[in-house]
Write a structure and sequence with these properties.
This protein is of the alpha/beta class and 259 residues long. The chain is 44% helix and 23% strand. It is built from nine helices and nine strands. Strands 5-4-3-6-7-9-8 form a seven-stranded mixed beta sheet, with helices on both faces. Strands 1-2 form a two-stranded antiparallel ribbon. It starts with 14 loop residues before the first strand and ends with a strand.
């Protein structure tokens, strides 16, 4: 198995990690965009295959924890092909609105037909842009969520600060992200699966081994749930709590912007 660099290493501000590779911070965004250009067309299928369908359950649990209400305005940061947006659209009713916000055009384009086929489509809009500089006014949303996206940012804390800025006082945040199993034997199996089987599946399905080494590497480099809670509290979110899913393969954090 590939050896992991120091977990969650300090960032000098000029460099960032792309998987296990230390790169110039200015280059990470481009590498991430190229990665999602490569995987976009098969993104939904690969998610379902590689997680044995579990990502649907994780997303449902995460949306439940966000506690959406009819009429809510929701920002889906790094929204990609729109799975979370569709689940949220069901909860917010006719008066509610969801904005899918993503930097990658190929991911948005891949998700569009799925959303267009849904009767919930009129509640969903798209915006292309960088999560570290949201092109949305202050206090414009009742809820903001990010699913499997924050670890791709060059500065994840900037993404959270931006989500905090665009939330109205009392607005709710949800972050669903990969983490690591808590049982040692399960972690060992999961490592084996994610460092060997996932890249192989990537090679077969999208023609790139590298595309699916970035996934497990970036997961290992991301903050552990307790660390992420501390980051959210530091930014100004209150009532922060998290729940591990499937022994910690994923974790959902929620918090509230204090009024
Ligand atoms: C793993 S996908 C998650 C998609 C979707 N949220 C889901 O749960 O299936 C991560 C998404 O983050 C987007 N992304 C990465 N960096 C971004 C950035 N700086 N700003 C906005 N979106 C970004 C990618 O384009 C990609 O669509």
């Amino acid at each position: 198995m590939t050896s992991t660099p120091a977990h969650n290493p300090p960032d000098s501000g000029e460099t960032a990690y792309f998987g296990y590779r230390r790169v110039a911070a200015a280059d990470k965004g481009l590498l991430v965009r190229e990665h999602f250009d490569t995987v976009a067309a098969h993104y939904d299928l690969m998610n379902t295959l590689l997680s044995f369908g579990l990502h649907h359950l994780w997303k449902r649990t995460a949306i439940k924890m966000l506690g959406l209400k009819p009429g809510d305005r929701v920002l889906d940061v790094c929204g990609g092909t729109g799975d979370l947006a569709l689940l949220a659209a069901r909860k917010v009713g006719r008066r509610g609105r969801i904005v899918i916000y993503d930097i990658n055009r190929a991911m948005l384009v891949t998700g569009r037909p799925k959303i267009a086929r849904s009767p919930l489509a009129p509640r969903i809009d798209w915006l292309q842009g960088d999560a570290e500089r949201l092109s949305c006014p202050d206090a414009a949303f009742d809820a903001a969520m990010v699913g499997f996206g924050i670890r791709n940012l060059t500065h994840p804390e900037k993404g959270f600060q931006e989500m905090h800025r665009v939330l109205a006082p009392g607005g709710r945040l949800m972050c669903l992200e990969f983490s690591q199993p808590t049982w040692a034997w399960f972690r060992w199996l999961y490592d084996l699966y994610s460092f060997y089987f996932m890249p192989l599946a990537g090679k077969i399905m999208v023609g790139s081994w590298q595309a699916y080494t970035y996934l497990p590497e970036s997961i290992r480099m991301f903050a552990r749930p307790q660390e992420l809670s501390a980051v959210l509290e530091e930014i100004g979110f209150a009532q922060v709590r998290f729940r591990r899913l499937t022994n910690g393969i994923a974790a959902v954090h929620v918090g509230v912007k204090t009024p």
